[in-house]
Amino acid sequence: MRIQSIDVLRGIAILGILLMNIYFHGIITVGYVPFDITPQTDMWVDTFNAIFADGRFRTLFCILFGAGLAIQMKSCEKKGFNSQDFLKSRLNWLIVFGFIHGVFIFGGDILLFYAVCGLVILKNLTLPTQELFKKARNWLIIGAVLSTVFTILILLAAEFIPNSFRGSEDFMQAYNEWVGNYGFQVISQASVVAMIIFSAPFWVFWQAAGLMLLGVYFYRIGFFKRGLNAKQFKLTLILAAVLTSLDIVTRFIYLGVGNQASSLLASISAIFMSILYIHGVIYLLKNNHRWIEIFKAPGRMAFTLYIMQSVVLAVLLRWVFPEVHLSASMIDYLAMAVGMILFQLVFANWYLSQFKQGPLEALWRKAYLASFAKKQAKLQPAES
């Protein structure tokens, strides 16, 4: 059941990520720009996002990415492969795909960043279980401290940050520069990708790497099979509720600036919410709620679906219906995301009923296996 739960969780994560990213698939340089008079529905949707979406699915996917590394390493050991070389081949090719995706399709790409984090933590995968947990915990603490510091700095600078509203001169300039100008889009997206990679060591790397190591730890101790006990569940629920409440308060007090600060706060509460999501899926599977298995197919072709989201939404929101950004509220973006999620849910289950593997998964597998085989061929003469 451990692998089954991971597939289901990966499917939920890759579809749920769209709830976070939908605002940036249109104009990544501004994301969601509020109206001068906030619609009541925006407040409801923002609260929903704070509780269930913001940071949650990215964090969950990061934990599962670490678990995936542990699964691949165990598979290599069974086959007698050099796990370090094998995983490096996988991650190096993921960097290539992530770079192409981030620069030319969607600047909010996570593949490149996750692959780089994966390469950095590879040597830690063989640590004894308790040492692995301690390192994961320490890195998560560093990440939480940095997120808190940046949140405080943003809130202190709130009065000096001009608010941009829908239809304002600043917004219209950003809109006109972006729409229909693919060259500008590529330059902007490349800048976002570069900023994330080069600034990561000063903030987001520690949390991402810590979450990956936590995923490895969870896999080793069988957490994806048994979930939380009663005491752990209560404590995790309380921490998630307290931190999420703080996030919601920040959003409503500071409005536009609060969104920037709350994304950092959400990254902390998301750790505990993600653990609750994992526990919830395990509980459903244990109690034979088979409907949850509908997410297994999206989990098995998460790579394909992630890129599909970017391609489809880039075409629709930048070229076919770019004017949607002039008037769409949060409820409209939520409806778009839900529609795309339902389509991908049906598509993934249909596709895997016809084929064994998603198209991009197959391409990635072919690429990294070829690279790994070449590396092993070069090592054999030296070893003999």
Topology:
Blueprint: H1 2-26, H2 40-53, H3 56-79, H4 83-104, H5 111-121, H6 129-156, H7 169-178, H8 182-199, H9 204-221, H10 223-226, H11 230-286, H12 296-300, H13 302-320, H14 324-327, H15 330-354, H16 359-383
Q: How does this model look, in words?
A:
The protein has helices spanning 2-26, 40-53, 56-79, 83-104, 111-121, 129-156, 169-178, 182-199, 204-221, 223-226, 230-286, 296-300, 302-320, 324-327, 330-354, 359-383. It has 384 residues and is mainly α. The longest helix has 57 residues, at 230-286. The mean pLDDT is 91. Helix 4 crosses helix 16. It is 80% helix and 0% strand. It is globular and about 65 Å long. It is built from 16 helices and no strands.
Would you kindly provide a brief summary of this structure?
With 384 residues, the chain is mainly alpha-helical. The chain has helices at residues 2-26, 40-53, 56-79, 83-104, 111-121, 129-156, 169-178, 182-199, 204-221, 223-226, 230-286, 296-300, 302-320, 324-327, 330-354, 359-383.
